[in-house]
Amino acid sequence: MVWCPAADGLMVLLEPVGPDLAPNSLHFLTPATLEFGDDNTVHNLTVRGAMVDLPSLNVQPHYDLQPEYPFWVAVALLAQDPEPLFATAAERAVVIPPDTEPLLILTDWDHPTEERLPSQTETFPRLAEVLVTGDRQRWRPVANPNTHWRHWLPK
């Protein structure tokens, strides 16, 4: 999930990987949309078609880290109830054939950075082992995932 002002909110990227799947079959969806003005005021927030009561969110902006108020609304939404923001089984079915059972569905992992190659992360060697063996029991969640919203902040 990424903060994407061009998509008016939070964008989910589905990237299936496997021998029976089409290569480069990326799929994007936007489960939450924010309507905001030029002054960064959020007018409406919708999650899967349902309006969210903006005053109920505990929005705590840190403008020194990210100057856009809508970003902090998205952060508060993720902190309050992240589950509706993840892809549903029906949405995953768009990129995963119906006769294919997902081996793993990850929402937290140790993503490569400019300083670290995939082979230097916790995630990708473990993921390779699961993919090679087909044994999902070999997967162990990583100790320090870096896919949490706090890692979205500009550097």
Strand and helix map with partners:
Elements: E1 2-4, E2 9-14, E3 27-36, E4 42-47, E5 50-51, H1 69-80, H2 89-92, H3 123-133
Provide a descriptive summary of the structure in words:
- The chain has about 160 residues and is of the alpha+beta class.
- It has two domains: about 1-100, no CATH class; about 105-155, no CATH class.
- It is built from three helices and five strands; from the N terminus they run E-E-E-E-E-H-H-H.
- It has helices spanning about 70-80, 90, 125-135; strands spanning about 1-5, 10-15, 25-35, 40-45, 50.
- Strands 1-2-3-4-5 form a five-stranded antiparallel sheet, covered by helices on one side.
**Morphology:** globular
Strand content: 15-25%
- Quickly count the domains: 2
Number of strands: 5
Radius of gyration: 17 Å
Key traits:
155 residues; alpha+beta; 2 domains; 5-stranded antiparallel beta sheet; 3 helices
Outline of the structure:
With 155 residues, the chain is α+β, with helices and mostly antiparallel strands. 17% of the residues lie in helices and 17% in strands.
